[in-house]
Amino acid sequence: MSMLAENIQRWINNSPVEFTAIRAQGPGGQNVNKVSNAIQLRLEIRASALPPEQQERLLKFSDQRITKEGEVIIKAQRYRSLEMNREDALQRLAELMEKALAVQKKRKATRPTKASKVKRMDAKTRRGDVKSKRGRVRDYD
After folding, report:
1. What tens digit of pLDDT does each residue of 95-116 get?
2. pTM assigned to the model
3. Pick the CATH number of 3-101 from 3.30.160.20, 3.90.550.10, 3.30.70.1230, 3.40.50.1100
């Protein structure tokens, strides 16, 4: 487990995560209308144990599970067990945070080589020749 993943697990454990049992969608037999076995996880980013700069990164991260009010909402209904759905929701929260908090590698600006420029121009010339020869055939008498 990476250092970031360990920190995320610690932050999740120290944050006020709210779980609500809700009814799952889809087929479920006779129990579907009686048992609430899906989980809705809610985490208010500002109230979490994340450091302020990482809270900002998470708030700016573009994901449909993060609301404009700064709350992460995850609905887990993959399993028929409430506990397994709870674990699934926590796992998905950790994955979301890992994706949002991962530091992107800085891109080094590079220049095309002289050979690649020549190759590109040759390809453009050849393509232009092919297109110019598609015109109407003329008889030069």
Report:
1. 888 888 777 889 999 999 999 9
2. 0.62
3. 3.30.160.20
